[in-house]
Amino acid sequence: MLVLTHRGEEVVEEHRRMLQAALARNVPSALRELQTHIESGLEHTLAAF
To answer: What is the CB neighbour count within 10 angstroms for residue 33?
Structure first.
């Protein structure tokens, strides 16, 4: 599946939060941020169809 649009600054911020949580070894926060990132990406992908 190829989506030709991107989510811009939103995804950059999600990656920043995931990295910060990982570096802080904050597992609950990292898992929460990863789940949000995956769900947002899925919603974006489904909306493209």
So the answer is: 20
For the full predicted model, state whether its pTM sits above 0.70. yes
More confident residue, 11 or 6: 11
- Contacts of residue 1, defined as CB under 8 A and 6 or more positions apart, other chains included, come to 45
Which position has the token pair 């919603």? 43
> Which two tokens mark 5?
């649009």
Q: Cα dist. 41→23, 24, 45 in Å?
A: 23, 24, 6
Q: How far apart are the first and last CA of the chain?
A: 10
Dmax (CA) for the chain in angstroms is 37
